[in-house]
Amino acid sequence: MTLILGVNAFHADSSACLIKDGEILFAIEEERINRIKHWSGFPVESIKACLEFENIVLSDVDYITFNINRKFNLKKKILYILKNFLIAELFRYFKKKNKNNIFKDLKKTLKLKI
């Protein structure tokens, strides 16, 4: 009998699963326990739930595997940053610039000293 604890950590939807002789016995996402949607971090509660499901302790597990691939979805992550951060900053910049132009236009049109 071989027990494997699989851990998916440090990116959205962190989770853990328990595999016995190649069959998945139990799997759970951390968000189901802590109620935080798309939670990322180390899934401590998910690991506890896996162990409790089989009524075992960590020392009973033969292997612990981690899903670590920093390049996973790198293109999507870069596009997300560009889309959500840079575009938002550009929008704020041009919005502020337009407000300044309105004041300049008012000043020019009404010949005011502002």
From TrEMBL:
Lineage: Bacteria, Pseudomonadati, Pseudomonadota, Alphaproteobacteria, Candidatus Pelagibacterales
Carbamoyltransferase domain sequence ranges: 4-68
Signal peptide per UniProt: none
Pfam families: Carbam_trans_N
Name of this protein: Carbamoyltransferase domain-containing protein
GO molecular function, one term: catalytic activity
Species for this entry: Candidatus Pelagibacter giovannonii
